[in-house]
């Protein structure tokens, strides 16, 4: 669900609301009853690391592939290893 930012025309308070795309925009401020305007805001997203370490999922996938290649090279260099 996206997070929308609103500003109240009466009191000037700015706040964020978690809303479904199908929900209509808010029209009045619960605090003071003033008219609300939706703000244009930058897109924010959170990428969860799948390896339990810091970094994005993408970078951890790349690290996995790099480590796999390094391990294969090490096995080739060692004589008699399986």
Anisotropy-based shape? rod-shaped
Q: How much of the residues is beta strand, in percent? A: 15-25%
Which residue ranges are poorly predicted, with pLDDT under 50 across at least 5 consecutive positions? none
Biggest sheet: strands side by side, in what order?
2-1-3
Name the average pLDDT. Answer: 76
Total tally of structural domains:
2
Intertermini distance: 49 Å
N to C succession of SSEs: EEEH
SS-based structural class?
A: alpha+beta
Helix content: 25-40%
Biggest beta-sheet profile: 3 strands, antiparallel
Keywords, separated by commas or semicolons:
3 strands, about 80 residues, about 15% strand, rod-shaped, alpha+beta
Overview of the molecule:
β1 (3-8) and β2 (14-18) form a beta hairpin. This protein is 26% helix and 17% strand. With 82 residues, the protein is of the alpha+beta class. It folds into 2 domains: 3-38, no CATH class; 46-82, no CATH class. The two termini are 49 Å apart. 2% of the residues are buried.
């Amino acid at each position: 669900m996206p997070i929308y930012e609103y500003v109240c025309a009466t009191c000037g308070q700015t706040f964020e609301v978690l809303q479904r795309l199908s929900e209509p925009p808010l029209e009045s401020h619960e605090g003071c009853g003033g008219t609300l305007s939706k703000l244009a805001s930058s897109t924010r997203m959170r990428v969860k690391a799948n390896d339990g370490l810091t970094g994005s999922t993408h970078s951890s996938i790349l690290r996995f592939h790099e480590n796999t290649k390094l391990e294969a090279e090490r096995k080739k260099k060692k004589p008699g290893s399986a």
